[in-house]
């Protein structure tokens, strides 16, 4: 299969924040700046390095896939796939491969990767259980699956101010579109049911200052979802106040927890 050319034209039909938005490249870059450090630190702890065959599923803006190219190449492989690959054009120049595909329906190589990673992808896909099973099947014996997903975990109700009001409406909008803000908390059982070994899960609540990369990312998210939020009853004034909170460097805010789950496919296990 030629991974450098599109194999699906399905677009972003399974995602609640499409990547063709005018400022999506900036929002994705900010998301990478906010979350890459933790993702990279954990990947290093898991041993990802030269010679590893890596799959980045739902690569988005491609920042983590770029790090993988530097970590696994030469000698390894980095395949970054997404329903919309417009932000991944530079990866082949770094030695990576790009595949435009639908994670639910298109072919994903089986037993082919030492490391499979997603970040904030599966919660947005209605058929997330199908995708999870397919990602497990993509692991070579001994390979590691790392999932990073958002989950409210009770924090949404506690978030104060206009930022919290907008976040709760945004969470409702994603669930109307097929997302789940509570799916990730059950990942340990899901991974065990799929036959993976050495399962680990943790969660952290990201605190961030107004004006930071994470604050700017959320402000752009509210801009992208503005019309949907208004349809759900949030006034433009409240959205504007939330964005002002995000711009205020005196403010400290927090986002819902990030759940990180990782596990290994047994050397002799046949899935």
Summarize the topology:
Blueprint: H1 24-45, E1 53-57, H2 63-72, E2 77-82, E3 97-100, E4 113-119, H3 128-137, E5 139-150, H4 161-176, H5 187-193, E6 197-204, E7 207-209, H6 213-224, H7 226-231, H8 236-247, E8 252-254, E9 258-264
Parallel strand pairs: 1-2, 1-4, 2-3, 4-5
Antiparallel strand pairs: 5-9, 6-9, 7-8
Helix pairs in contact: 1-6, 4-8, 6-8
Taken from the alpha-carbon principal axes, the silhouette is globular
The overall strand count is: 9
The largest sheet is: 7 strands, mixed
The whole-number mean of residue pLDDT values reads: 90
| CATH fold group of the domain at 24-152 and 180-206 and 257-264 | Rossmann fold
- How helical, in percent, are the residues? 25-40%
**Rg, Cα atoms, Å:** 18 Å
The fourth-level CATH homologous superfamily of the domain at 24-152 and 180-206 and 257-264 is Vaccinia Virus protein VP39
* Category by helix and strand content: alpha/beta
User: Strand-residue fraction?
Assistant: 15-25%
Number of helices: 8
Uncertain spans, ≥5 residues at pLDDT below 50? 1-14
Distance between the termini: 23 Å
Main sheet strand line-up: 3-2-1-4-5-9-6
CATH architecture of the domain at 24-152 and 180-206 and 257-264: 3-Layer(aba) Sandwich
CATH class value of the domain at 24-152 and 180-206 and 257-264:
Alpha Beta
List the secondary-structure elements in sequence, H or E.
Answer: HEHEEEHEHHEEHHHEE
């Amino acid at each position: 299969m030629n991974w450098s050319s599109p194999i699906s034209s399905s677009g972003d039909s399974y995602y609640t924040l499409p990547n063709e938005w005018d400022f999506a490249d900036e929002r994705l870059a900010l998301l990478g700046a906010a979350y890459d450090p933790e993702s990279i630190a954990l990947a290093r702890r898991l041993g990802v390095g030269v010679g590893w065959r890596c799959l980045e599923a739902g690569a988005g803006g491609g920042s983590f896939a770029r790090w993988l190219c530097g970590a696994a190449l030469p000698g390894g492989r980095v395949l970054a796939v997404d329903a919309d690959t417009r932000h991944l054009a530079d990866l082949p120049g770094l030695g990576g491969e790009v595949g435009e595909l639908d994670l639910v329906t298109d072919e994903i190589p089986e037993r082919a990767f030492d490391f499979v990673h997603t970040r904030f992808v599966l919660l947005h896909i209605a058929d997330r259980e199908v995708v999870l099973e397919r990602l497990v099947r993509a692991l070579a014996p001994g390979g590691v699956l790392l999932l990073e997903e958002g989950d409210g975990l009770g924090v949404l109700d506690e978030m104060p101010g206009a930022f919290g009001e907008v976040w709760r409406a945004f969470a409702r909008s994603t669930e109307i579109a097929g997302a789940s803000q509570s799916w990730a908390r059950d990942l340990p059982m899901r991974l065990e049911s799929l036959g993976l070994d050495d399962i680990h899960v943790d969660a952290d609540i990201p605190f961030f200052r107004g004006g930071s990369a994470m604050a700017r990312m959320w402000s752009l998210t509210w801009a992208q979802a503005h019309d949907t939020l208004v349809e759900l009853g949030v006034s433009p004034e409240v959205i504007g106040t939330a964005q002002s909170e995000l711009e205020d460097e005196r403010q400290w805010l927090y986002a819902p927890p990030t759940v990180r789950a990782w596990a290994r496919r047994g050397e002799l296990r046949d899935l």
